[in-house]
Every structure is written in C-alpha cells, then in structure tokens.
Amino acid sequence: MDRRTNPYAPGAGLQPPELAGRDRFIEDAAIDMDRLLDGRPNRGMLLLGLRGAGKTVLLNRLYQMATARGIHTAKIEAPEGGTLPQLLAPELRRILYGLDLKTAAGSRLRQAVSVLRNFVGAFKVKAGEIEFGIEPAPGRADTGSLEHDLPDLFAAVAEAANERHSAIILFIDEVQYLSSKELGALIVGCHEMAQANLPFLLMGAGLPQLAALAGNAKSYAERLFNYPQIGPLGFEAARNALVHPAQHQGVSFDDDAVAEILRVTEGYPYFLQEWGFQVWNAAADNRIRRTDVQRMTPVVIAHLDANFFRVRFDRLTALQQKYLRAMAQLGPGPYRTRDIAAELGVAAAAVATIRQQLIDKGMAWSQRHGETAFTVPLFDSFMKRQIPVFEKHKPKRRKKKRQ
Ligand SMILES: Nc1ncnc2c1ncn2[C@@H]1O[C@H](COP(=O)(O)OP(=O)(O)O)[C@@H](O)[C@H]1O
Ligand SMILES: [Mg+2]
Fold first, then answer.
1. Disulfide: which of 8, 120, 153, 402 matches 277 by Cβ 3.0-4.6 Å?
2. What is the pLDDT of residues 291-336, one digit of tens each?
3. What distance in angstroms lies between residue 9's CA and the mean position of ligand 1's atoms?
4. Is the CB of 265 under 6 A from ligand 1?
5. Nearest CA to 9 among 244, 274, 266?
6. Strands (E), 6-52
7. Residue 231 in contact with ligand 1 by CB distance below 6 A
8. Which SS3 state, helix, strand or coil, does residue 311 take?
9. What is the largest CA-CA distance in the chain?
10. CA–CA distance, 306 with 11 (Å, rounded to integer)
11. Which of 107, 185, 178 lies closest to 141, judged by CA?
12. Which atom of ligand 1 is nearest to the CA of 273?
C-alpha cells in the first residue's frame, strides 16, 4: 500500500496514531492535575515499564494535558551521567519568566528569581540571562549541596506559582539515569513541596528498576509517589492500536492477521507499530491478510535486530553480552540470579559485578532480591539469534606478577 499514507509510528517517543489502552492512566493524571490546581494534596507519579512499552508518549500526553490546563511545566530527559542542575535551571527560569516577571511581579516571584540566581551560582550552571536589580535571597539555594539547594529552589518557584494561583508540574523522562544523589535531592524536594502543600508535582517515567532506586535513595519515596506500571497492551487495546488507524483510511485487517501480530509482538506497543508499519507497506490492497503478516515477520525481525536490539547490544562488553546470553539460554525470564551464574558455570559472586553493570546500563533489572530480568521485551530471542551457540564462561586466570 501507499507508503506515503502509512499511519503507524515506530520509534522512540513517536506519537502513535492511536494511544491505545491508556485511558485509565490519563484519567488518573487528569484528576491529579485538577486537584493540584485546586490546591489539594497529591502524590507525584513515576511511570514504570520496559523499553518500548510507551512511557515517553504517555508522559508527553500528560505534558500536553498539563499545558492545556494552564499549569506551568518543565520537561527534561535525564541523560546518562548528566547533571540535573544544568538541565533544570533553564527550565525553571522559563517557568518564572512565564509567571509574568515583568508586569506586576509579586514579591514571591522576585524572591524566586534571586533563589534561582543563587542556585545557578552555587552549581556553576547556565540558565540564560537572569535579570538583576532584584531582592537578594541570602542563604537560599546557595550551599552547593544539591539535597539542600534543590528543595529550596523548588519551594521558591512553587511559592511564586502559588502567588499567581498557578501550579507547576515537573516532567522527567528516563529518571533511572539520575545519579543517586540527584534522585535523592529530587525526592527530598518533592517531599518538602508535599509537606508545605505547595502546588508542585513530579511526573516522571523510567525503567522498572526506578522504584527500587527511589526507595534506596529515600525510603519514604514509596509513599510519596504512585508507580503506575506501563505494560504491554491487552487484547482489545492492542487490536485497537493496529486496526483503528487503518480503518480511518478504509483499510481492514483480517482477524487472524491481527491475532498473528499480537502473537509475535506480545502486545508491546513499539512492536505493534513496527509490524503495523511494515505490513501496511507490503500489503497488495486495502485488506491486510494473515499471509501478509507471515511474509513480513522475518523482515521486521531483521530490522529490529539491526536497529532496536542492536544498538543496545553494541554498547556492551563481551562479558556483559555473555551474561545476557546465559539469561536467554534459560528462556524469557525473569530468572533467579544464581541460575544465570550456574548456566555460566561460575559462582554468583564471580559475575555479580557484570550483573550490576548491566543494571546500571539499563539492560537488566531486578524485581525482587535474587532475581534478574531483561528491560527490553523479546530480548532473549534476539540474544539467541545474535549468539547462536552458547558457551560457558571461562574466567581467565591472572598471570602471577613477576617479582
Ligand atoms: N498506547 C499506545 N498505543 C499504540 N502505540 C503506542 C502506545 N504507546 C506507545 N506506542 C508506540 O510505541 C513506541 C514506543 O513508545 P515510547 O513511548 O518511546 O516507549 P518507551 O518510552 O516506554 O520506551 C512508539 O513507536 C509509540 O508510537
Ligand atoms: Mg522512553
């Protein structure tokens, strides 16, 4: 069919033609936002899910909803090894200026600008020009300790928003990449905003290990946020994600074609978009049949192997790859950590560092103690295609140093 009119949108953060199966989350977030604007207490939310589950596009939808309500928003993506202050400072500056600094600036607003200036100085980051000639705010957000200064800054900005009868939502994607210090400071900040009943909320997204990371950083994080699980789509939603966009263009799917796509994708949104996209291009007329799907499945898999899976695989050392290959040997998972070591033929302690590196890189995670799982759906079968023959781990003997 005509590739120009292909409705599907495979790719990281690409808005799908139909955001299927997420109505409940959207409804919950809408209620949170309305409560926030009414000055009622709220928990923040951290969306958790595997790669390609649809966290970023859902977070983007929530962002649009917040903006449409007139809530002031900041939106960042935590980079691997990046610094939170550098990312936040310009966004918070933009919020303050959006709160109408020039006309009829309130005292809280002028204070907040001073606090931001302190913060920018303490962390030596850039935020864009900050107007001078405003009241100094000595002792606020100027210690250089993020755990003190970030909550101070949040408070100052939230007080300014409060004065304007407005509210702030901070959107952060890939939260698991924040350092533990940054995550700790962020949580303390949210905690203080909640205690002071200031109109400030965090809505974030990250890989499933984020729940444990947040809990480790501050034990009360468990009660401070809701953690909606963004999983694969159920039958109805997955079907809608495929069928509706086609229907809008007069194209139909046979039921067994849909069933076949659901079988191979297991309902994961990213894979649904990839299959939809390729099958559309390959179909001869405006009826998509099971044979079209079967014909295209190897093509889609080859494409995924060369791109989506491959980029992740290439970032790993040979030993890390081997660890993942041992996991794949045991099936789709999750796995008992000691079974993986046994598969490798070594004691669990011998590969504990490799496992931790894989967790830090966002390739693996642990739901409960002693367990390990992939963060990328269907990665086990990719590992088997990539490394067809599994060999046990043979740790190299260190040569004795000559005296
Ligand atoms: N609810 C949904 N319905 C249909 N497609 C979706 C849905 N959520 C995400 N997608 C598609 O899945 C892909 C991955 O989405 P993304 O938000 O980047 O995932 P994540 O951030 O969890 O890795 C994109 O191509 C997007 O269009
Ligand atoms: Mg994402």
1. 8
2. 999 999 999 999 999 999 998 899 999 999 999 999 999 999 899 9
3. 9
4. no
5. 274
6. 44-48
7. no
8. helix
9. 79
10. 14
11. 185
12. 25
21 lines ligand 1 (CB under 6 A): yes
pTM of the model: 0.91
Contact 204, 46 (CB under 8 A): yes
Q: Is the CB–ligand 1 distance for residue 19 below 6 Å?
A: yes
Confidence (pLDDT) at 67: 96
Tell me which architecture the domain covering 318-386 has in CATH: Orthogonal Bundle (1.10)
Q: Locate tokens 């610094």: which residue?
A: 83
For residues 145 and 252, what is the distance between their CA atoms, to the nearest angstrom? 59
Would 23-226 and 235-313 be classified into the same CATH topology? no
**Assigned architecture for domain 23-226:** 3-Layer(aba) Sandwich (3.40)
Cα gap 316→358, rounded to integer Å: 8
Q: Which ligand is nearest to the CA of 236?
A: 1
| Distances from the Cα of 396 to the Cα of 17, 274, 341, 399, angstroms | 52, 42, 16, 9
* Weakly modelled stretches of the chain, pLDDT under 70: 81-82, 101-105, 131-134, 397-403
Where exactly are the structural domains of the chain?
23-226, 235-313, 318-386
pLDDT digits (tens, 9 = 90+) for 159-215: 999 988 899 999 999 999 999 999 999 999 999 999 999 999 999 999 999 999 999
Residue 251 tokens, joined: 């194209």
Helix 146-163 to helix 84-98 angle (10° resolution) is 10
In CATH, which of 3.30.300.30, 2.115.10.20, 1.10.8.60, 3.40.50.2300 is domain 235-313? 1.10.8.60
Which residue lies with its CA nearest to atom 15 of ligand 1? 54
**11 Cβ inside 6 Å of ligand 1:** yes
Q: Which helix (H) or strand (E) holds 291?
A: helix 290-304
- Token pair belonging to 138: 């000595």
The tokens for 362 are 């966002």
Tokens of 229: 């699980």
Sign of the alpha-carbon torsion through 387, 391, 394, 396: negative
Cβ atoms 132, 110 nearer than 8 A: no
Q: Which ligand is nearest to the CA of 8?
A: 1
